Structure formats: C-alpha cells, structure tokens
Queue: 2 jobs
Job 1
Amino acid sequence: MEYIVTAKEMKIYDSYTIEEIGIPSLLLMERAALQMADVLSEHIGKGTKVIIFAGTGNNGGDALAVGRILAERGAWVTFYMPGNEEHASCETARQISIIRNLGYSILSEFKEAEYDIVIDGLFGIGLSRNITGEYEKAVQKINDFKKKGAMVAAVDIPSGIHADSGAVMGCCVEADITVTFEYGKAGHYFYPGRIKRGGLFVRDIGITDRGFEKKLPSYFSFQADEIKTFLPMRDPAGNKGTFGKVLLVAGSVNMAGAAILCGRSILRCGAGMVRIVTPKENRMILQEIFPEAMLYTYEKEIDVEKIEELTAWSDVVVAGPGLSKGREAKELMAQILKQGKLPMVIDADGLNLIAENEDLKKAVKAYERGKIVMTPHPGEFVRLSGISMEQYKSDRRSELVKLAGEFGCMIVGKDAVTLAVSPDSDCVYMNLTGNDGMATAGSGDVLAGVIGGLWAQKPSFETACLGIMLHSAAGDRAAIKKSRYGITASDIIDEICQILAEEHNL
C-alpha cells in the first residue's frame, strides 16, 4: 500500500519530522537533493550542460543543492534565480551561501545558451495562485529548452501544477521527469498534472509516517504485487456454494451483452454461481453464449415472490448493467433494495433509476450501511448527487465523500483516475493503473462484475478497491497486446484471468 498526500498534509508531515522528531530541515533538503542527483546520474557526464531555475522558496533551495551536487560530480552548471534573493527562505539562503563559498555564481538575469538538462525549482507544492510576470517568462524559457531537445527535470512537482488537483495554474513547466519526496502528491496523478510531470520518481528522504497521528493522508493505493495479499482465500475443499452465489439483475430487450460481460466477470473472479434476472427475449442468446449462468426471465410483470426467493438464495446482488429505466426495471430495483442487507453492487441504469426516483433513493439510504457499492461514471454521479459537472470536476474527492456519507454506500467514482470511498472513512482509494483504451463499451459492466465476483467471497471496502485495480491492470495488459485503440471489454476479462494465473500463480 502507498499513500498519496495533499500539499497541506505534506507540510504537516514535514513539520512533524523537523519540529517534533528533530531532524533538521537543511538535512532533509540535502537528502532530497542527493536523491534527485542520483536519479539524474545516468543522464550526467563530465561536461554535461545543466541550468538550474531556482525560486526563492524551499523548492528553489532543493534545486540549488541538486545543481551544486551535479557540479561537484563534473557537470557544467549554471545557476539562475529570477526572483529577489532577499526573499529567499532560510534554507534557500543557506544553499545560496554554500554555492558561493564553493566559488559558483548565481545569475539574476537570464543569458541565452544551450543546455542538455534543465532543472525546474521555481515553485513547489505550495503554489496557490496563477503564475505571472517574470516567473511566467521563466516557465516559458524552460519549455522552450524542452522544445530544443533539452531534458526537463522538475523538483517535487512541475512549477505551475496544483499539488492537490493537478490543474495548471495559468502556465506550467512540461517536465520529462519529476522527482518527488517521500509520498506522491495528488496533483501528480490527476490530469493534466499526470501528463505534465512526465516520469515520476518517489524517493525516501526520512520524513516519518508518525505524522499520520496529526492527519491521515487523503489517499491510498495498492501496488500490483499486492493483488495476492488482498484476494479472498480459496478453500481447497470448497464447492460452488462456498465461493458465493451472485444474483445479477441485468440486460433489457436488445441489451443482452451487458449481462453476458458482467456475468462472465463475476465467474472469472472466483464466484461459484451466477443467476441472471433478465427479460425473456434474452433467454436464447444467454443460453447459447453463456451456458454457465442460471436464468430467471420475466415478461411484463415481475413475480415478487420469485424475486424474494432469488435474493434469499444469493450472497451478493449486482444490479443495473443494461437494465433500462422502464417500469419493470424500476420494480426490480425496488424489490431488490427492499431486503435491505445483502451485499450489493449497483451500476449503470440501476444508478440512473435511483437518481430519478425518490422512493429508490430512500431505500438506498435505509439499506444497511456499507453494504452497497455504487459505481457511477461522471454523468451518473452528477445525476445521483444533484450537483453540476463543474462542481464535480472542481473537487471530486469532497463530492465523493459527501455522497458516500449521505447514502451510506461505498462509491466508486469511475473516471480517468478512479476514486473509491467508504461511508465511514475519509481516506480515499486512488487507482493508479488503467488507460484510455478502457473507455470502451462494456468496460463498466466488467468492473461491476469483478467487484461482485470478489464480494461474493469477501465483501469489504478493500476487496472493492482490489477489484478496481485488477480491472484496470487487466486493461493495461490488454493495451500492450491489442493497443489502446483496439481494447474490447472481453479483452479485459481475458487479461484478468491471465493476471490471476500467470503473475500470481493462482
């Protein structure tokens, strides 16, 4: 597990390490500079031309220290500080003094020359307003060097990228690599910051996790090698009932594909049985294409007693893929929610029905807390929450936490960077894998099935997060084989099997 922090949280952990543990800030700065110099070492040779763009804050001090270390290792380094040196922080003022004691000079006026590497230390994670004036010109100079073929390396975060949102603050440096310290910052992973930072290196400099006592990080994520750790255990003596029975309420007339994709995903993730509730028009195609599934088909009227019987049979319900928003679909959702306690995954039209019907909303809110996972994409999320798309985009994390608390549900906010939140915790799961090739029909149906199949064996927030990671990691593997242009939902299902079989010997 890794933690991802905001600028405010990083400041808390930094201060805790310095003030309460007693590790000097200048020592942390020196460690940071050494780590970045080591990352750059393969690009540095004797006579490599490097220019340092240093601000007056501690980010500038880090950059100056990096430049000093590279100069001592044989690089030809130019130090440039566009701001007023008198405004330098204590640590940066000390770095200025060290550099001059070693016989190097720091330019206050820019001089054109050719460079191999440009180090961006203008602004760090504390930037809170748009870049203007001389600093805007400095950012442009850095980007011009990049266009000419120089490698741009950012200290902590590219100048101009908001550390929490990844937004561009007026203008920004477009880095080839970014070296950050101790924890990744949220702005490294949200777009467009994720593109602007280039390759990301997270390096340890000795900031203690004990600062979590003051404030837990806003985000956490799983690593690919943790899949086996969080997967539900298999009982060697188990049977199909042991591994969970899933009731899948999915499909409508001319929409059988969603039920097939979701149902296959459920079984591929280890559930023992799946039973699909779907219109009678889908019976033949499902029996031909998906013989492993049991079926209950309906015509115009829903048999309430039968639905009660089916929910009593099941361990988990997955509802919504391809369901439509017709009368029968609404009635099915009402009946399934009525039992109030089965672990449940709601996706697609299941979410749209809830958004449009107050009685269904009330049923969700009355459901046993933490037993429902909702998986909305941005459009479904704004319909559920009643906010605008602008509000959603401005602070996704807060809106997810708010809706989870209001509904008492786990929320998986599908997006370019998927977030998941539990109703009982402010620490949000951030998914770091996946690619744009997964923006394809049926991909969401597969995700609902993956979470449902895993939940049939072990319903928990961590298991839901594992499902997100497993789904997107499979998408990354599919992109390698099929290209991001050619991924289909079925490819993702196939790669899930390969991940479980090959990478984890399961």
Job 2
Amino acid sequence: MPREEENAPRVNNEITSAQVLLVDENGMKVGVTNTLDAIRMAAEQSLDLVEVAPMAKPPVCRIMDYGKYRYQLQKKEKDARKKQKVQALKEIKMRPKIDEHDFDFKTKAIRTFLESGHRVKVSVFFRGREMSFLDKGEEVLNRVIAECEDVGKCEVKPQMEGRYMRLLLTPLSGK
C-alpha cells in the first residue's frame, strides 16, 4: 500500500526498523521492543503503531488510533486557516495630469481598500513626453500619501519601474 503523503508518519507494517521504543496509548513508556511484537500489541487493542520520532535511535513509536489522529490534525489545520487573515494587494492606476474629481474618486477607493485591510499599490503611468515631467507624478503620489495617512502608511516610497512610478500603502495595524 503506497503512502499518501511524503511527510506522513509510518504506520504498522511501513515501519522498517527491527526494534522501536514503544509508548502505549496512555503515554506511558513501555521500553525498547521488537517491531513485530509492538505491531501485534497494537492490533490486540485494535489500534495502530505510529512512528512519531523516526530519527531517534531506536525510533519512537506510539500505539494510537491513526484515523482519529489524522482527523484531529486536519481539524487543527482547518482552524488555523480560518483564523488566517488574507491580505490582498489592490492596484490603482493614475496619470500625472489627473483631474481633481478623478483623483478624489480614486483616493476614496484607496481609503476603502485600506480600511478593509488590503494593501494598495498606487501607480502613475507616464506616456510619451510625460516622461520628462516625473515630478508631476511624484506630486500626485505624495498627495495620495497625505490624503490616506490616517488609514494607511507608505511602505515603499515612490519609485520608477519602467514607465510607471509606484508606491505601496499598507493599512495601519490598529484598524
């Protein structure tokens, strides 16, 4: 029977060593035992022999219900994923000659993203001759930082990446 996971512990007949340090189902140390005897002892109690420390000399094996053990591990992993906060990266694109209404509208969207806990990448795209007026793009990004300083902080200062000038805003930890 092939093992389903690479890092899963060996169970019953998958254990290859001749002798193991046996721990019973109550957590009491039985001592160094022949592997076949340990498997037989586990089978008598209708439980499994699970290798918990394969690198030890001799390997440490425990008598337990392997199905129940796997179920509890999956439950713990699921709970850990539930509590994990996913922080998405949103991107807002602007131009150096952005109109006041458009700027206000996009800044409002940035504030909404920051308040809901997302990181925001703000990009100013330069076309043609606009590349010679990089200071205009930097002014736009500095205005965004000033407008959003109460809900987010600038993690990466404005910097050029090709034809884009970008900055990264992250939500304040207190929000």
